[in-house]
Write a structure and sequence with these properties.
This protein is mainly α. The protein contains three helices and no strands. The protein has one domain.
Length: 164
């Protein structure tokens, strides 16, 4: 019969063991699971915070990238406009310089023509005077007489009109 006693269940021991089990579960839950859960919750909160900050940083980086691309596009457009304006200004200046050069060339040409005409008239007048004096000498030798100033001028005028 002794073997049967080993297998038998004593009700008070069983109740005490169950109470002991509940006390152990309560103590483990309170002193072990609660701090572990608190630590796990803090880690979860920290991970969530880091993920949120990473998303915000990614959104900010995307925003900055968009702004950078827009400013780069604007800079390209501005550069193209500056180059276009510079080309237009250069063309305008080139046209102005060419126009001024043409005006100066025309002015120099007109002055040269006027100088040529003046020199031509001067040469013709000198030739007239020379021809007149030669004609006077020839006429004086041919006629061998003295001619008055008025006759002298008339002879020169007649000679010049005949010569051309």
């Amino acid at each position: 019969m002794q073997t049967q006693e080993l297998v038998t269940l004593v009700p008070w021991t069983f109740i005490i063991q169950i109470i002991n089990l509940f006390i152990q579960v309560y103590l483990i839950k309170k002193f072990l699971f609660k701090p572990i859960n608190d630590i796990l919750q803090k880690r979860k909160d920290l991970a969530d915070k880091e993920i949120r900050e990473a998303r915000e940083a990614q959104d900010e980086a995307t925003s900055l990238k968009t702004q950078y691309e827009e400013s780069l596009t604007n800079a390209h457009a501005e550069a193209a406009k500056i180059v276009s304006d510079a080309q237009k200004e250069a063309e305008t200046k080139a046209e102005t310089i060419v126009r001024d050069a043409e005006q100066q060339a025309n002015a120099l040409k007109a002055k040269a023509n006027a100088d040529i005409e003046q020199e031509k008239k001067k040469a013709i007048n000198e030739a007239k005077d020379e021809i007149g004096s030669l004609a006077m000498e020839i006429a004086g030798k041919v006629v061998e007489k003295e001619i008055s100033e008025a006759d002298h001028k008339k002879l020169i005028e007649d000679f010049i009109t005949k010569v051309g």
